[in-house]
Amino acid sequence: MVFLRAISAVAVSALLVTSVANGQGDSADRYAFEETPVLSLAQADPQTATVEVETQVERHERPATVGMGSEWDIWAPVRMRSADPQDTGTIQLLHTVTYATSSDGTDDDVRLFVMGEWGIAPNHQLSLAMPWLLGDGDAEGNFNTEFGWQWRLWEEKDWAPAFALRNTLFIPTGEGGSGLDWELTGLVTKSLTDRWRVHFNPFLKVASGDSPMPREKKHPGDLRDFQWGFVAGTEYLVTDNLSLMLDYIHETSEYRGHRNQHSMEFGGMWAITKHHGLGFGTRWTLDGDDQEDNFSASLTYSFTFDAPAFARN
Q1: Which class for 302: exposed (0-12), middle (13-18), buried (19 or more C-beta within 10 A)?
Q2: Could you tell me the pLDDT band of residue 191, with boundaries at 50, 70 and 90?
Q3: I want to staple 174 with a disulfide (CB 3.0 to 4.6 A). Which of 16, 20, 88, 143 is the partner?
């Protein structure tokens, strides 16, 4: 009789463990810790064997496409950005090739943009970038340097969205460059579900010299000293390794005497492995004038590796 009771207790424990394991599933909450029940069988007396439930805290990791780590940043070749920074203690190298057409009578452009992003500390990211306009070495702004710092002030919690500030300096190290330009961008991110987010990125740029980006186009008028605009869009995690995004861009024209510019973008990013990824993006104008590209298509290769950091999560 004692033997049968012990066998019954073991069988009940096995069924409970199986039930708990099947009920865990994927985490629906990416921003919080969840309690996972862990079962243990008391070994005191077979006649009075009982099942005790202990509790341990476990962090559910996000899918690989979210920065190919624990942070869900956006590295696809689009203007929209997330409040989440680069993973602490990692460096991500981004190589982007863009083909663009325009209506100003010049040839189509092929651009190369190389950027490195370093998660230097929790909530802090540094970046260094350089653009090239291929085939037009004497284009204004070729080989200029961009230095950026992103600081996430707070993470998303309950109804409050995540918020970060991104500072970018455009240093005139390239062809025909003059003056130091600065751009401040606010990054607001809010999750509607565990796979669907919206983003809002207002920005202000102070231009003290020529255009910081490579250009062979000649626009009448002077460069605006103060430029502003915003990017608003949405992003959806289709699978654990693929996300798609759509955004709208409203911004002042770069040169005086021209109207504000309107465009849209569609893109995505695919995490092949933890260290390698591919991103794509397309942009089209809603104005039809010669101030910006009529259409552009971009492809990004991402490589991520571990690096030193001042502190880790």
Answers
A1: buried
A2: very high
A3: 143
